[in-house]
Design brief:
Blueprint lengths: L14 H14 L1 H20 L8 H24 L7 H6 L1 H6 L2 H5 L8 H10 L4 H12 L3 H29 L16 H35 L1 H12 L1
Length: about 240
């Protein structure tokens, strides 16, 4: 990695500071992130919602299961934004083989259940290592840093659930008449709205989760490889 090309100022940061840096990176590149992310996510969400007639629980499960694959598009854009490079849909389409189809099976199986997937996904997607080498690299990156990554997953999972509940609660707030009804089977009426609310939250919140994990990864590499010192030395010699 060309450290001197990074648009981010690398310095020792706590995990929370690193996660905040990721959120700010996502905000700064929001137009590119959401343009590319929604290009992929909206068809997945639409196809998932179409399975509601098969089983009411199936759309939410499919969206949840597809999130690591959708995250790969977000990480592609963020990895370029970290170097000050904009990303367009054409850039994404040119890189689709590496972004969408590389390690697809593992992305949707074992890595789907990883509680620190946003932290380690950068190793699998960006470093281009063979399978065994990437496993060793992930162990090195993870060593002593899984707790912050787990906390990021927990925090965003909690925020996701609360936002979805808040959206569904709008039905009660704006429904005419008695807002509280406890008749038998009433909650079945809210299965589809709840699924749509979950999908909307994923479409909005997921890029920030990916960004927080990506920043944790960059922070870890900066610690392992002394990027902050290298950046300062390069600046000193340039002046």
């Amino acid at each position: 990695m060309q450290v001197d090309s990074l648009a981010l100022r690398m310095r020792p940061r706590s995990p929370l500071q690193a996660a905040d840096l990721g959120v700010r990176l996502c905000q700064s590149a929001a137009r590119d992130v959401y343009r590319c992310y929604w290009l992929v996510a909206l068809p997945v969400v639409a196809l998932s919602l179409a399975t509601f007639e098969i089983a009411s629980w199936l759309p939410a499960l499919l969206i949840w299961w597809a999130k690591p694959w959708l995250d790969r598009t977000v990480l592609f854009v963020l990895s370029r934004a970290a170097f000050g490079q904009p990303s367009s849909v054409s850039d994404l389409l040119r890189a689709q083989r590496q972004v969408w189809w590389s390690q697809l099976f593992l992305t949707l199986t074992t890595r789907r259940l990883s509680p620190w997937r946003s932290f380690t996904q950068s190793v699998y997607q960006l470093e281009g290592l063979p399978f065994l080498a990437s496993r060793k690299r992930v162990l090195q990156i993870r060593r002593g840093r899984t707790t912050p990554a787990n906390l990021v997953t927990f925090a965003f999972g909690t925020a996701e659930a609360l936002l979805a509940i808040a959206l569904v609660s709008l039905i009660f707030w704006f429904e005419p008449g008695d807002p509280i009804r406890f008749q038998a089977g009433v909650f079945a009426d809210f299965e589809l709205p709840a699924t749509i609310a979950y999908a909307l939250v994923v479409l909005f919140l997921e890029p920030f989760y990916v960004a927080a994990g990506f920043a944790l990864y960059l922070n870890r590499r900066a610690q392992l490889e002394a990027w902050d010192i290298e950046q300062e030395l390069r600046r000193a010699f340039q002046t």
